[in-house]
Amino acid sequence: MNSPAAPRPLALVTGASSGIGYELAFLFALNGYDLVATGRSEKTETAATELARHGTDVIPVRADLARADGVEAVWRAVEKTGRPLDAAVLNAGRSIGGAFLDTDLDDELSLIELNVTSVVHLAKHVARHMAANGKGRILITSSLSATLPTPYETVYGPSRAFTRMFALGLREELKEHGVSVTTLMPGATDSDFHARAGMNNTDFGPGMKKNSRMDVARQGFLAMMGGKAEVVGGDAATRRTALSHRFLPESFKAARHARAAKPRP
Ligand SMILES: NC(=O)c1ccc[n+]([C@@H]2O[C@H](COP(=O)([O-])OP(=O)(O)OC[C@H]3O[C@@H](n4cnc5c(N)ncnc54)[C@H](OP(=O)(O)O)[C@@H]3O)[C@@H](O)[C@H]2O)c1
Question: Which of 12, 14, 137, 264 has the fewest CB neighbours in a 10 Å radius?
């Protein structure tokens, strides 16, 4: 008599409807995970249908993570499976380009809700759930922007600096509970990210050579599976930049970022 098949592991990926998050969800699907895959737009369902072609069960959840009820809706979808969550990728995020004097305050406060508050909110559920199970892997997307001041995206960089230090702190706390936390720090990556941030009129526009989102996702996935603390997402030049940021003065990095991110007249 055949023994019953081992249950498939379950992963949650936020921001799975496009970009780096979609590629991460794809890697989970290839590796035999079922998915709770979230996004905000109608692309969420399309992405879920594509991912399901790889023989994985995908639960799409459309929710605005800049709102507490959106975060709760995502967590309810996980709980509704009645299954242990083996991996969670807290990846949804965005930037806003432009001069701080011109950018919209409500938009920036909403960015903080998404990039900072929702990460803490969702991590609270995920961490308690995984600690109670004595196992789990968490990947939190930060950015190379966490390692410098980011003028003309002045709110974005600090939001990712929060994410990075939050992830590193949580990693230390959750160690003794059998849960690993990994931080992904991509450099500029080919996704909708900069266009959505209104940065096409800067060096981050369509002409810029960017890292492949597939490569960045693979680096994040492997680092998470290997229980690593942190990984830079991108090519050798991106890794060299990350290394140089440890030694360069903040004022130098700020001036360099301003030249690249300042909208052209
Ligand atoms: N691309 C880069 O250069 C770069 C560099 C460093 C770090 N990162 C980080 O990587 C992460 C993923 O970005 P990406 O490059 O893959 O960008 P992307 O292609 O624009 O994808 C962003 C994802 O986040 C979701 N999202 C955005 N706002 C949301 C909201 N209010 N509620 C729920 N979901 C929301 C989007 O959903 P919908 O598409 O359905 O709206 C999408 O799935 C972000 O956290 C970003 O900070 C990106």
Answer: 264
* Cβ of 147 below 6 Å from ligand 1: no
CB burial of 192-207 (b: ≥16 within 10 Å; e: otherwise) equals ebbeebebeebebeee
Whether residue 196 has its Cβ less than 6 Å from ligand 1:
yes
Residue 214 and residue 230: Cα distance in Å, rounded?
A: 18
Beta strands of the chain (E only): which ranges?
10-13, 34-39, 58-62, 87-90, 136-141, 179-186, 230-233
Mutational test site, ligand 1, from 193, 215, 241, max ligand atoms within 8 Å of CB: 193
Residue 250 covered by a domain: yes
Atom of ligand 1 nearest to the CA of 43: 40
Say if ligand 1 is within 6 A of residue 143 CB. Answer: yes
CATH for 213: 3.40.50.720
Span 209-237, pLDDT tens digits:
999 999 999 999 999 999 999 999 999 99
Beta-bridge partner residues of 59: 36
Q: Which domain holds residue 27?
A: 10-261
Model pTM score: 0.97
Q: Indicate which residue's Cα is closest to atom 42 of ligand 1.
A: 15
Q: What are 246-255's pLDDT values in tens digits?
A: 999 999 999 9
C-beta 189 within 6 A of ligand 1: yes
How many domains is the chain built from?
Answer: 1
Q: Respond yes or no: is residue 22 known to be catalytic.
A: no
Which 3 state secondary structure label does DSSP give 106? helix
